[in-house]
């Protein structure tokens, strides 16, 4: 079969509506399906341009190819049909399309006698070599066997040859896990018995285990195949869940085929893997990782030429993929094909759509590896003249000259040459400083910082100042350290409002000076305190009646003082604002609310009901600050807070409350017009506060009796609305949960480490035992 040809150009006489849709979205699946449906009802002369337009965008859409070729077969345009088949067969290993090809071959050769029969047999063999192991290839095998049985036999020799060919076809078909493997096995048994019952017994017993293995593999294979959408069109990945699910389905099928579950020979197993990859690319045509996996698998299997062909196809399918180009060049270089790899790099450099600086860098490294120092140096001199050459190229070559060529003078000259172009690049300044630091050239490091900071704007100099301070802290004396720190503050904060307080020395500066890597001169608590004080000093002029919400240390910006989180995770914990807390007042009336009049869309709560002492302490007998806070609170959270009951009793254990909430089946009740839960919502039984705080009233008896369940707790309805209003959420008994049981067990195990203790669980007698 001839190799695929380039699709014909799309003429301008295509349907206007489809052209407009294609202009809006080239890969519009709905527009493509509509265009294909329209072409189905048009004469081939009018439909051909539409098919060409579709196939130019979806070159692996087997259903469009099949529809196109069937339209040509209908008008008996054999030459055009052959041309279309030569373009699509090898890239679309789709059984319905290949069966259409066989129908065409049989139609063309039906009147050619013996020669036509031979051509048809070769076409069948050609088809089975590509799609014979497909799970849907059962009808193909049946068609082939039927064709072989229909061949004329003029003598006993030809009859024997025909029977042998039919037997071989059956024996290949029954060991292939297809949808029709059981039907093929029954047909094979009938065939052998019709030829010779004595011979059939031995052959059937020989192939019975192979057939059983194929049938078992088919059942497993079918599970993976059923997850695949065979009508999907190949579009670039957009992150949709359907696309991701199809990607995962193909990955699972490929992994299944690679383990060779049927334990067949390597050649046959590799054919199945190739078929699976080719079919996968019909639908994931625009996924570079699939192309790369396919080529890598070929290379690991020892078929380097096949891997190269896959990469070449991948670059035609995804010419904009820079990753695939580098991977292809890497493969060529690994097998010693330096010139082929060089062509790939040159294509990256001549193509303006790719990152030119990265291409320059990788090409310099490639030349250094393959052709030596002089080739890399010569190309660098040419690359630096390019208008799209960035500072990255200078840094790369300078590091190469220092580390690989052992030429620090050349590296220094490269950095100095780059300073003429990239003085305004902080990253380049830092790389140059690192180089000078490695050379122990502290004098030039200071000169570099002074030269760079004199030209850099304040907003771009923060990192350079930070590095300058770190350098002085490491290598300078105390006077130089203090001087540079003061200059840094003046440069970065001298122009901001109330900058005078920032310019003053503080304990944060001491922390910055005496910190090394992950070693800190203070505890995490002290660090949080300092960060909090720093934030307060920045906001000291703001009015207290309008406090900002991010008041915890986790919200403090520590970049200006050089403070960062310690390796201990406690520094990142956001602590509550204890200044707003008050002692619990048992005289607090139940049912009062602390919410203002307007808390969000759809939620209305009167702000006059503020007898809660917490509110009075928080806002100083004023609701303005609380209103400001709740204005930026999400409406859903405000509605949730509005429905919380008043807490009476000891403070509950937060961990236990959270565990019970996570284990409870909380129904999704309907929201009323006011934004609150309707009364029809199923109530959630929660434990009382006294139970969560460890009160002895709710603890199980140590006698081992089980926890008592009440009938009211199991019922889904309440006795009446009066009971609903009078019974609070806190009065419900503690539900039996695994979390509490494990806590009690852990406490008992801890207490029993000093001796032997025999105990019985208050929740279940099965948890009794002895520890010691």
From TrEMBL:
Pfam families: Suf. Residues 548-570, 686-772 are annotated as: Disordered. Residues 559-570, 693-706, 750-761 have a biased composition (Low complexity). GO terms for molecular function: mRNA binding. It is found in: Nucleus. One of its GO terms (cellular component) is nucleus. Keywords: Nucleus, Repeat, TPR repeat. GO terms for biological process: mRNA 3'-end processing; RNA 3'-end processing. The keyword Protein biosynthesis does not apply. Residues 710-721 have a biased composition (Basic and acidic residues). It comes from the Eukaryota. The keyword Repeat applies. This is Suppressor of forked domain-containing protein. It comes from Eucalyptus grandis (Flooded gum).
């Amino acid at each position: 079969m001839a190799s695929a040809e380039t699709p014909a150009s799309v003429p301008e006489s295509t349907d206007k509506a489809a052209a407009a849709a294609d202009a809006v979205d080239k890969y519009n699946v709905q527009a493509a399906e509509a265009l294909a449906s329209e072409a189905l009802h048009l004469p081939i002369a009018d439909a051909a341009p539409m098919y060409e337009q579709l196939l130019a965008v979806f070159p692996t859409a087997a259903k469009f190819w099949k529809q196109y070729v069937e339209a040509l077969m209908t008008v008996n345009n054999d030459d055009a049909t052959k041309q279309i088949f030569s373009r699509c067969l090898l890239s679309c290993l789709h059984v319905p399309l290949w069966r259409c090809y066989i129908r065409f071959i049989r139609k063309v050769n039906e009147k050619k006698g013996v020669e036509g029969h031979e051509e048809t047999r070769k076409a069948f063999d050609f088809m089975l070599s590509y799609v014979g192991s497909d799970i849907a290839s059962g009808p193909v095998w049946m068609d082939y066997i039927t064709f072989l049985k229909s061949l004329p036999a003029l003598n006993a020799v030809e009859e024997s040859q025909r029977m042998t060919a039919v037997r071989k076809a059956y024996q290949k078909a029954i060991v292939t896990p297809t949808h029709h493997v059981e039907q093929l096995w029954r047909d094979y048994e009938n065939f052998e018995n019709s030829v010779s019952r004595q011979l059939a017994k031995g052959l059937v017993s020989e192939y019975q285990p192979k057939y059983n293995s194929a049938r078992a593999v088919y059942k497993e294979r079918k599970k993976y195949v059923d997850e695949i959408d065979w009508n999907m069109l190949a579009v670039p990945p957009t992150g949709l869940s359907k696309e991701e699910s199809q990607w995962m389905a193909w990955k699972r099928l490929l992994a299944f085929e690679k383990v060779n579950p049927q334990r067949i020979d390597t050649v046959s197993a590799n054919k199945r893997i190739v078929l699976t990859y080719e079919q996968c690319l019909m639908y994931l045509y625009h996924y570079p990782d699939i192309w790369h996996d396919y080529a890598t698998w070929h290379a690991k299997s020892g078929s380097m030429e096949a891997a190269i062909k896959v990469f070449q196809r991948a670059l035609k399918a995804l010419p904009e993929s820079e990753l695939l180009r580098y991977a292809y060049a890497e493969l060529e270089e690994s097998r010693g094909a330096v010139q082929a790899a060089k062509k790939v790099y040159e294509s990256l450099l001549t193509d303006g759509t790719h990152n030119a600086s990265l291409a320059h860098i990788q090409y310099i490294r490639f030349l250094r590896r393959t052709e030596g120092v002089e080739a890399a140096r010569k190309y660098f001199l040419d690359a630096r003249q390019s208008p799209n050459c960035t500072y990255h190229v200078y840094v790369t070559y300078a590091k190469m000259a220092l580390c690989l060529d052992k030429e620090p003078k050349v590296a220094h000259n490269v950095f100095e040459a780059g300073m003429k172009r990239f003085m305004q690049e902080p990253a380049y300044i830092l790389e140059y400083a690192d180089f000078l630091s490695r050379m122990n050239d502290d004098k030039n490091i200071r000169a570099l910082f002074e030269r760079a900071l004199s030209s850099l704007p304040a907003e771009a100099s923060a990192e350079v100042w930070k590095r300058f301070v770190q350098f002085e802290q490491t290598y300078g004396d105390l006077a130089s350290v203090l001087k540079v720190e003061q200059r840094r503050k003046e440069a970065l904060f001298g122009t901001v409002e109330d900058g005078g307080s920032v310019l003053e020395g503080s304990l944060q500066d001491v922390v910055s000076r005496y910190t090394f890597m992950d070693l800190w001169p203070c505890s995490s608590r002290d660090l949080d305190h300092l960060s909090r004080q720093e934030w307060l000093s920045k906001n000291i002029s703001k009015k207290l009646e309008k406090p900002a919400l991010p008041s915890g240390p986790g919200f403090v910006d520590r970049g200006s003082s050089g403070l960062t989180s310690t390796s201990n995770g406690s520094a990142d914990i956001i602590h509550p604002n204890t200044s707003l807390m008050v002692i619990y007042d048992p005289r607090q009336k139940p049912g009062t609310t602390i919410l203002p009049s307007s808390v969000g869309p759809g939620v209305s709560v009167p702000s006059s009901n503020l007898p809660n002492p917490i509110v009075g302490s928080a806002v100083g007998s004023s609701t303005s600050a609380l209103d400001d806070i709740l204005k930026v609170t999400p409406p859903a959270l405000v509605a949730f807070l509005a429905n919380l009951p008043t807490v009476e009793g000891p403070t509950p254990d937060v961990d236990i409350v959270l565990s019970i909430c996570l284990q409870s089946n909380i129904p999704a009740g309907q929201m009323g017009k006011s934004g609150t839960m309707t009364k029809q919502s199923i109530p959630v039984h929660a434990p009382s506060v006294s139970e969560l705080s460890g009160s002895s009233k709710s603890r199980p008896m140590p006698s081992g009796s089980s926890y008592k369940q009440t009938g009211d707790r199991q019922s889904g309805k309440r006795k009446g609305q009066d009971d609903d209003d009078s019974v609070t959420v806190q009065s419900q008994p503690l539900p039996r949960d695994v979390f509490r049981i494990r806590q009690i067990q852990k406490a008992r195990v801890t207490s029993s480490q000093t001796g032997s203790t025999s105990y019985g669980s208050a929740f279940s007698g099965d948890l009794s035992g002895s520890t010691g």
